[in-house]
Design a protein that fits this description.
- The chain is α/β, with parallel strands linked by helices.
- The chain folds into two domains: 14-67, no CATH class; 98-281, Rossmann fold, CATH 3.40.50.
- Helices cover 24% and strands 23% of the residues.
- The protein has a seven-stranded mixed beta sheet, sandwiched between helices. It has a four-stranded antiparallel beta sheet with strand order 2-1-4-3, covered by helices on one side.
- Helix 5 links the parallel strand 8 (177-183) and strand 9.
- It is globular.
- The structure holds S-adenosylmethionine.
Length: 287
């Protein structure tokens, strides 16, 4: 808020009642002596009561002081640096071996772990499992990664601040992961947000490349339309074969991985149906 203007005042800072409506006209605070208060003017057959001074004057001066700054040039607020700027990331380089980050007999990858419960719970299923989470939101990547460290799981479970669409193509060698998880992804519904979607051709191609020959892709969502879309997309890609409960279908009633995501815990608590799909890597596919 700047100091009150000393410029000559326009005929403002008045509160008038005209045509039954209250008008607050606001301008720079006036230092000139006010016109006679409570004067009644009659113009064009309408009564206008212009009130100056007293309560109204003080109100108008206060409002004026708040609004005299140029709205197109608002005062700059000092930027507080984000505490999550230094969230852990993948090592630099065109190609990154996930084993430089996590070590274990069975390597898995989760895209968008969010608040991370699947990472904690999955790493606790077996000391053989090592799982890499790629989370685009720095804040949650860092909070979860720190929690994993405190839990003594860092060697086998990490949550790194990465956009999966940029990070997946950098991961090498091919065939390194036993399983890939995509849980409740893409909470964007508008067409203009299509570019943000993780699920798509690039994701399927990269996951197919990164999965071992007997590797699996598990997807779940509580949004029915999205479930149908994912099912169609993966089946149509011809990169994966269905491994669901029924022959020819990827649909699977339960999550067989003894670990649940935050959203999954919530959906179960709220009694929402969860749509789950399991596919295996197709070897003959040319991805
Ligand atoms: C709806 S939340 C679900 C979180 C978690 N998977 C769960 O089931 O509770 C989707 C998550 O995916 C993350 N995400 C979205 N786009 C991403 C991307 N390109 N790379 C990595 N993470 C992404 C979001 O930041 C968010 O944490």
């Amino acid at each position: 808020m700047g100091p009150p203007s000393l410029a000559p005042p326009p005929p403002a800072n008045s509160l008038a009642v005209a045509n039954g409506r209250a008008l607050v006209e606001v301008g720079p605070p006036s230092l000139a002596p006010p016109p006679p208060a409570n004067s009644l003017a009659v113009a064009n057959g309408r009564a206008e009561r212009a009130l100056f001074g007293g309560v109204y004057g003080a109100l108008a001066v206060a409002l004026a002081a708040m609004t005299t700054e140029n709205p197109s040039n608002p005062p700059k607020r000092a930027r507080v640096p984000s505490p999550y700027l230094h969230a852990a990331r993948l090592p630099e380089g065109e190609s990154v071996d996930p084993r430089t980050v996590i070590q274990g007999k069975i390597l898995e990858i989760e895209i968008g772990p969010g608040r991370g419960s699947f990472l904690y719970e999955r790493a606790n299923v077996s000391p053989d499992i090592a799982i890499l989470g790629l989370e685009v939101r720095k804040k949650w990547a860092q909070i979860v990664d720190e929690r994993l460290a405190k839990m003594g799981l860092h060697g086998r479970a990490r949550s790194l601040a990465e956009d999966a669409k940029e990070a997946l193509p950098r991961l090498k060698p091919d065939g390194i992961f036993a399983r890939a998880y995509l849980h409740f992804p893409d909470p964007w519904w508008k067409k203009k947000h299509t570019k943000r979607l993780v699920m798509g051709d690039l994701f399927m191609k990269e996951i197919h490349r990164l999965l071992a020959d007997d590797g699996e892709l598990f997807i779940q969502t509580d949004v029915e339309d999205r479930a149908e879309l994912y099912e169609r997309q993966v089946n149509d890609s011809e990169l994966f074969f269905t491994k669901g409960d029924q022959a020819g279908s990827a649909r699977i009633a339960e999550n067989p991985f003894q670990a649940r995501t935050p959203r999954e815990h919530r959906a179960i608590k709220d009694g929402l149906p969860v749509h789950r799909f399991l596919w295996g890597k197709k070897l003959s596919a040319t991805g």
